[in-house]
């Protein structure tokens, strides 16, 4: 699998602190190699739009779609409790 980013994702990612960027770098490797890696805690976020979410840090989530052999990264943001 591979991944692409949206402009929205790029803008939000640019706002993230360095610690989140580092965690993202680790998690994206897991995502590309093994979607079901336990640390990702991957789950369907929105059934209607086929959007998934994974955990980047304790309070940061990344949202994406799966299109063929590509993950389309849609957003990264603070997790609302």
Number of helices: 2
Identify the CATH architecture: 2-Layer Sandwich
CATH class descriptor name: Alpha Beta
- Approximate shape: globular
Query: Structural class per helix/strand content?
Result: alpha+beta
Share of residues in helices: 25-40%
How would you concisely characterize the structure shown here?
The protein has two helices and five strands; from the N terminus they run βααββββ.
Any chance you could write out the topology, listing elements then pairs?
Blueprint (H helix, E strand, L loop, with lengths): L1 E4 L1 H9 L2 H16 L9 E4 L4 E7 L2 E8 L2 E9 L3
Parallel strand pairs: 1-5
Antiparallel strand pairs: 2-3, 3-4, 4-5
Give your account of this protein's structure:
Helix content is 31%, strand content 40%. The chain has 81 residues and is an alpha+beta fold. The mean pLDDT is 95. The protein has one domain (2-78): YaeB-like fold, CATH 3.30.2310.20. It has a 5-stranded mixed sheet.
Looking at this protein, list some descriptive labels.
5-stranded mixed β-sheet, YaeB-like fold, 2 helices, 81 residues, 40% strand, single chain, alpha+beta
